[in-house]
Amino acid sequence: MRLVILAFSVVAIALIGTYLIGEIDATYQTVKHSYDSSKEKYTHHELKSPEREQYHLLLNNHWKVSPVFSFMEDLFYPFREWRYEPAHAVKFSGDYEYFNDQLASIKMIEKATKVRAMRAYFFAKRKNFKDAALNNDFINKNNQWLSTFKELIERKVNLMNGTYDNQWIVCIGIVVLFGVFAILAPFNQALLGLFCVMASLFFGSFYHVLNYGIPFHWFLIVLLCAFRGFEHLKPNKMALLTGAFILLIIVGISPTIYMAFGVFSIILIWGYPKIRRGVYMVLWLHPLGAWYVLQKERQFKSIAIIWVGALCLLWVFNMLNIHILLTSPIAYLGHIGAGLNTVVLMMVSACIMMDCQDKISIKYVNSLSGSIIGIIFVKTIWGSPLLFQWVFYFLWNPMIQWGSVITLSVFLLKHMKWSTGSARVKTSVDQRIVK
User: Fold this and answer.
1) So what's the pLDDT on residue 1?
2) Closest CA relative to residue 202, chosen from 94, 311, 90
3) Which pLDDT belongs to residue 386?
4) Do the beta carbons of residue 225 and residue 310 sit within 8 Å?
5) At what angle do helices 397-414 and 216-227 cross, to 10 degrees?
6) What is d(CA 70, CA 74) in angstroms, rounded to the nearest whole number?
7) CA neighbours closer than 13 Å in the CB half-sphere of residue 56
8) Res 366: pLDDT
9) pLDDT of residue 72
């Protein structure tokens, strides 16, 4: 019963967090105002008003200039990309006085060009967009405003990210991580886990590593396996199933199209169980997926094959110029990366439920399934779906990632020991001799 209450508590926190972020984020309020202002009679026409254009631009870029999301990004991802100076991973100071002076003039130009674009749109609209000369005049002036507005957004982003000092956030993160590890593992293992996590974050923020999309939890696996062994783990089936359902609840906040692909992948895994092992190389790209694969695969040779397959996937995506680093904010991934992230989480949930289905009562499964349906239903009829999407981008997804990293770390610290085929044969022979 307590696990069911936990699942429903996640739903309540999701709703409360969604509402609060929408209220305190002034940039989101600007987006909402642009959307309300863009509602008009002639929305069916191919010529969009400047207000609607501004809405779409802010929709795709507002999180870059929002102080709320900027703080949340630093909180969950404190290590920045560094190239030559390792200290730049947490602190950097740039001299941007010249750019600050330019920003004021760009703001004035943006306001002037928008006024001209709005006036041209008004005259074109008065003629029901049937006057080609007025339409062309609006298109030219609107393009001038759009280019200036995009430059203004880019300049603001460069100024916000040009100077940063995340040392205090890193120190707080060290204390919190050590506290979590100390609760879940002995003191010496907690220290080792903390060192490996911080080292993997540092190596994973190197610019070559980020450019090739290599997730930092791969460094974590290598470091922990270099120090520890690996023994058999018997996890709590009820806790695993509750975690799987909570994942599905949270992923239910994601855009409907991503969720549809995730549901399709669940149907495939449930309908064709043999597919599950074939997707291990995809699961390996996410720390939660890597934790699940390490639970199922015990041979070093099998893990190496999966790892090579995941590297090949990264190489293919890089050749196609698709960035799918699943341990970065989803907003940086694009549609393909965000969809893949959702599908991976839902596939892991499906695999866990398949492993637990013979141990769990039907009533428990039905009660948690009801919570999933409830959150999706509330998402559909309450509030702006975009707001739910942003909360998922900047709050719940990094929480899932950090929970996955901690789960993976504790698992490797306490239960890691590679097995080989010869060792299994020897064990089988010994058992026969005993019999």
Assistant:
1) 55
2) 90
3) 60
4) no
5) 20
6) 6
7) 7
8) 54
9) 81
Distance between first and last Cα of the chain? 43
What span, in angstroms and rounded, lies between the C-alpha atoms of 133 and 349?
57
pLDDT at 418: 47
The answer to whether residues 389 and 254 touch, using CB atoms and an 8 Å cutoff, is yes
**Residue 218: what pLDDT?**
92
Contact of 313 with 230, CB cutoff 8 Å: no
**Length of the chain, in residues:** 435
Q: Measured between alpha carbons, how far is 314 from 312 in angstroms, rounded to an integer?
A: 5
What residues contact 51, with CB distance under 8 A and at least 6 apart? 34, 37, 38
Domain ranges (residues) in the chain: 47-65+94-162, 168-420
Q: What pLDDT score does 175 carry?
A: 92
Q: Is 128 left (phi over 0), alpha (psi -120 to 50) or beta?
A: left
pLDDT along the chain (435 residues), means of 10: 62 70 71 58 61 73 76 86 86 70 80 87 83 86 87 80 84 91 86 91 89 90 73 55 65 71 79 80 90 81 88 88 83 81 84 68 54 56 57 77 87 64 40 42
Write phi, then psi, for 165 (nearest 5 degrees): -145, 95
Q: Which residues contact 198 (CB under 8 A, 6 or more apart)?
A: 174, 177
Going from the C-alpha of 5 to that of each of 1, 2, 11, 351, 352, the distances in angstroms are: 6, 5, 10, 23, 20
State residue 272 phi and psi, 5-degree precision: -130, 85
Q: Which two tokens stand for residue 117?
A: 């674009």
And the tokens for 406? 């901690």
Residue 127 main-chain phi, psi, to 5 deg? -95, 15
Q: Which residues contact 158 (CB under 8 A, 6 or more apart)?
A: 96, 99
User: β-pairing, 91-92 with 164-165?
Assistant: antiparallel
Cβ(41)–Cβ(129) below 8 Å: no
pTM for this prediction: 0.76
